[in-house]
Amino acid sequence: GAVVSQHPSRVICKSGTSVKIECRSLDFQATTMFWYRQFPKQSLMLMATSNEGSKATYEQGVEKDKFLINHASLTLSTLTVTSAHPEDSSFYICSAPTRQGANTEAFFGQGTRLTVV
Amino acid sequence: GEDVEQSLFLSVREGDSSVINCTYTDSSSTYLYWYKQEPGAGLQLLTYIFSNMDMKQDQRLTVLLNKKDKHLSLRIADTQTGDSAIYFCAERANQGGKLIFGQGTELSVKP
User: Fold this and answer.
1) What is the pLDDT of residues A75-91, one digit of tens each?
2) Is the peptide bond prior to A8 cis by the omega test (within 30 degrees of 0)?
3) Does A113 touch chain B (CB under 8 A)?
4) What is the distance between the alpha carbons of residues A111 and A11, in angstroms, rounded to a whole number?
5) What order of strands is seen across the sheet that includes strand A19-25?
6) Looking at residue A25, what is its pLDDT?
7) Which of B57, B64, B53 is nearest to B89 (CA)?
8) Rounded Cα–Cα distance for residues B75 and A52 (Å)
9) Are A108 and B44 a contacting pair at CB < 8 A?
10) For testing contact with chain A, the best of B32, B43, B94 (most A CBs within 10 A)
């Protein structure tokens, strides 16, 4: 299957600083990527849809000024958590859909564990 | 709106079959998916089924879909300790390509 690479896998940062997470599609182009957030023992909550060449679409309740998304190219989307607070600590996962025959499948990155201290 | 529900826990003995259930509300869903997540890792696509199918088998995995009741199940035959993980069902929303996930079922396989 297609490969989506996410970096870093773990990051610890101080309150008030910003953290950038990268999501790359390694062997296919993705005009759209999705960013999810997952709290411990909970499901994935869609935060935003990243669109190459245009603004991201944020889900209701997600602060666009806090979670900056940039889809710089057809293989790279970045999520920047600005002015991080301890409550931003979570597991962030990106995914990129790609056509697989008649179906569109979503491939996921490995996730990024963010801890804000 | 779209909603996907799963039971939270399932415990089985090694060698038994596991059945993980999922219900969804969006009748316009076209594809339904099962993902596996091991601790601290991303999601691995296990299998998927078209909404016009009622069964799909892939080695030890069998997916059953009852479209009338909006019920999806994943059966794992001969469950192994390596199958211990959280299993998410997901439906593809009617637009935008985004996936709507259930809460995840934590499968525990005891030797």
Assistant:
1) 999 999 999 999 999 99
2) yes
3) yes
4) 11
5) A4-7, A19-25, A76-81, A67-73
6) 93
7) B64
8) 38
9) yes
10) B43
